[in-house]
Structure of Large ribosomal subunit protein mL38:
Amino acid sequence: MLSSLITITTLLALSNAQSWVPSGDLPVDFTLTFSAPEMVYDVCNRNFTQSARTFTVATTGVAVTPGETANDPTAMTITGASSGDMFTILMVDPDTPSANVGTTEKPLLHMIITNITNADPSTGAVLDPYRGPMPPPCSGDHTYHYLLLRQTAALSLTVDDLPTYTPDCSLANLAGRCLFEVANFISSNQLTPVCYVTMVAATDGYVRYNYVNDRGRFFIFQRRLPSSKHCT
């Protein structure tokens, strides 16, 4: 009986695993640094306070809040690269509550930078700028995946090419972002994962503030909740 339970648990874990997530020891280190300011959000007759702090994301499973990762990373650092290496950075969210926006295999794109040289992300071409976590209320934890991918040569991709990797995306305002085919993107561009880090975030005061005060701007297509749900 115990053996059967273990087998079922293993199969469930495998079914939930993304095929594009690398495994084993990876040869390069990638670190993101965020500097969050102190903020107070007044929403639904409640105050949410965000303390100022500077922190890094350099491993998997780093707990963060949307408020403190709302702004672009203050630094992205690549170490352990070989001379002449070129890289792409990909950030995705496979935990969106709407299957029209993202799934385990085809997540929502949050950032893509290509043709990074000299191990310096600021040299790269930003095809899709950083968009911080904005997990909808009642959608649980979202894991935001960063993949550092080594290129074999310079990529000629432009922002107009991104919809090529989102053929199932039917949302015009998310063209090139929703249902992003990560595995296809990696294989068709001959990319190799060399580092992988993640951060985990759930709804906080920052998210609730934006849903209540600027709902048209932030992913309301993911889940249309009545205003009262944003205040629970």
Remarks:
- Confidence is low (pLDDT under 50) at residues 1-15, 216-228.
- Residues 44 and 232 are 9 Å apart (CA to CA).
- Residues 2-16 form the longest helix (15 residues).
- The radius of gyration is 18 Å.
